[in-house]
Amino acid sequence: xSSTFSGDETAPFFGFLGAAAALVFSCMGAAYGTAxxxxxxxxxxxxxxxxxxxxxxxxVMAGVLGIYGLIIAVIISxxxxxxxxxxxxFDGYAHLSSGLSCGLAxxxxxxxxxxxxxxxxxxxxxxxxxxxxxxxxxxxxIINRRCTREKAGRxxxxxxxxxxxxxxxxxxxHV
Length: 175
Fold this sequence. Notes:
Elements: H1 11-47, H2 52-55, H3 57-78, H4 89-126, H5 137-148, H6 155-166, H7 168-174
Helix pairs in contact: 1-3, 1-4, 3-4, 4-6
């Protein structure tokens, strides 16, 4: 390296790796969330076309995750300039950890948005009566009543998460 370089020579590698991790993982989460909830929106367009615009919210939420990753990647990469100020391994590891935390959080959020978005659209507007079996009829009645309301509250998605992760009999019936 040149004589004007100050700090560790390998530190920018870790910093740029953090910027790349923030961008890649959050965009993977955004892509998964968009694709998974987009399938629900497409089925909604066939079953009840008047509700398509209400069903597009998870797709927009998933797309915003990629923008968050891009913003964090730009912030990290502009902070890496070893010729202007010293850039040590601590700085590189700090940028790596912040990029990984942003990217992996975006990936997890994108997966959650995709699963809940697809399940919410499918259950609440299209297939609400097909998921019930006789063993858990009271729960299905509560869920169907909550999902078919015109203005279901914030608890709607919590019920759907409960169905998807804690009730294995619903998984096979939902697909």
